[in-house]
Amino acid sequence: MSDKQRMVFITPTWAGDLDHFRVMRASLEQSPLAAFDHYVVVQDEDIALFEEFRGRSGLTLLSTRDVLPEDVERRRSHARRLSQRLGRNMTRICGSLKRVFSWPAWPSYTGWHTQQLCKLMLASELDYDKAVIIDSDVIVTQNASADDFVSDISYVCFADWQNHAELKGKVKKWIHESAYLMNTTSDTRQVNAYFDTPFVFDRQLLCKALATLESNTHKKWWATLLDRPPRRWSEFGIYKAFLLKQTPQISIDWRIPSFCHYLFDTTDPQKVVDTVGALLTDPNIHYVTIHSQASGRVKQDANTYLEPLLSLLEKVR
């Protein structure tokens, strides 16, 4: 069986991304990637909202209860209840307290962290050679191809090379934390600042990376990550740091994802729809990600552009 046939797509999601996921799944179903298996893991309390997708061809719907260790799932559920009760600002304050004083523990178990654990667990445990992580905010175009993720002579890892001295914010912290956890040194000149999806995990290499993490810390890999300061570690960063450590022994295709396009401003819904419409017919674009810098901070109904995008996808089928 070829590498292409041994490839799976994985999406972690939750209630807040349901409308985005609906568009993503519709685009995937009508793309050249539709024949590949797609595993979707949803926060357990939200699983009923996603029942409309159960039974779709190639789609396996799981809850976090199916994927996470029992203790981690229990703590995740508790963290979500606390976060909802305390609100966004107090949750961030508690996260800051955890980073400085190692207390309280619960901010390390919020959805952002446990989604990363779900990606790593599925990608390392499912019986496939490659796992492609694709988030709910991605739209797959008719030009997407399995060749985007495979190479006949090397392992594929997407890369966005940036000057180390110019790094800032969360990307800088993720790269430094990943180097620390993998016991390696980041290049002082150029670093790989790609932390988006699609993202490719080679199962064999990922398992070695997680084993290295356990060897370095003498703990289960997920316990190590949950012990680290909140929002300071990245599943993709850890994998990339491991690959950098292995490059003298193995060949890595640090592939520039030039076929990906990112939208950051969603304040004008019609502009979003028009832009995506043009990108869907651009042969050079395989994936469109709709990021919103204001996500969670301003009130905007994403359906003002998501519903028209669903109709648009039907027209370009």
TrEMBL record:
Q: Name one Pfam family in it.
A: DUF6492
Q: What is this protein called?
A: DUF6492 family protein
Q: Which InterPro entries does the annotation name?
A: DUF6492
Species in which this protein is naturally found: Vreelandella vilamensis
